[in-house]
Amino acid sequence: MKAEKIIELIEKVCPKNLAYSWDNVGLLCGDKNKEVKKVFITLDSNITTVKEAVEKGADMIISHHPILLNGIRRIDYSTAEGQMLKLLIENDIPLFAAHTNMDTVKGGINDYLSKLFSLLDVKILEQHTDDKTAGLGRFGKLDKSVTFGEFADICSKTLNTHVRAAGDFDKIIKTVAVASGSCSEIIPTAKEKGADVIITGDMKYHNMIDMTELGICVIDAGHYPTEICVINIFENVLKNTDVEIIKSENKDIFKFI
Ligand code: FE2
Q: 149 alpha carbon to ligand 1 midpoint, in Å?
């Protein structure tokens, strides 16, 4: 199957126009006419994951996090980015990214998280295009209320990680907001929409204090644990095609010691 056809299948699920303007999505490097038998799916794209893709004989990379996000003015092979681009080009591996379009689309990462937590009556936290079914983050209700302490425990088990939880541990949690990756800027909106807790990643110390002072509990479950489900979403899109799917061994950069 041509790379172009794979791109078409993915963009049918998460249209490009749902991506934020600052983002970099779509075919970011390589030949759309490449014949693809093995596709490598990954959360991150960097020298490590691209090397893994080359070693495993992949013909194409589908990534959540984009490359070249901040623009580029030189390809210097002494840098990690330069080496990564060299590997991609020398091995003729097209790289395609679905980033904020996959975060925000109906059925994307945040809907996946909502399902994982069995949220009911799920709504969008922040609509960002004319598409009313898409937007950043979700919020919904738990079937049964629990305390924040209990919920933090549920969260760590559900996402199979350690979480950093801040707020009143006796607070009753009924409405839960989810915002995958780095989404601390959406916390005030979650509070306005009535969320008792928000699960996100990449919280900074002072920001955590400021946000919990709004009266919302915050769980920092980490960037990787809140987004790694994207691998399952990519897999679902491609599973009925004749391409072989290789899942990256890409692990969370953070280890708990
Ligand atoms: Fe991310």
A: 26
Residue 115 alpha carbon to ligand 1 centre in Å: 19
Listing DSSP states for 86-151 in one string gives HHHHHTT--EEE--HHHHHSTTSHHHHHHHHTT-EEEEEEE--SS-TT--EEEEEEEEEEEEHHHH
CA of residue 182 to ligand 1 center, whole Å: 6
d(CA 12, CA 228): 21
**What is the distance in A from the centroid of ligand 1 to the CA of 227?**
6
Compute the distance between CA of residue 14 and CA of residue 62 in angstroms, rounded to an integer. Answer: 13
pLDDT in tens, 52-101: 999 999 999 999 999 999 988 999 999 999 999 999 999 999 999 999 99
Return d(Cα 209, Cα 92) in angstroms, integer: 47
Give the distance (Å) from ligand 1 centre to CA of residue 44. Answer: 8
> What is the pTM assigned to this prediction?
0.96
Q: What does the angle CA 232 – CA 238 – CA 240 come to, to the nearest 5 degrees?
A: 115
* Predicted confidence (pLDDT) per residue in 15-31, tens digit: 999 999 999 999 999 99
Ligand 1 midpoint to CA 29 (Å): 20
230 C-alpha to ligand 1 centroid (Å): 10
Taking only the tens place, the pLDDT of each residue in 197-222 is 999 999 999 999 999 999 999 999 99
Q: What is the DSSP string of 195-217?
A: -SEEEEE---HHHHHHHHTTT-E
Closest CA to 122 of 195, 180, 16: 195
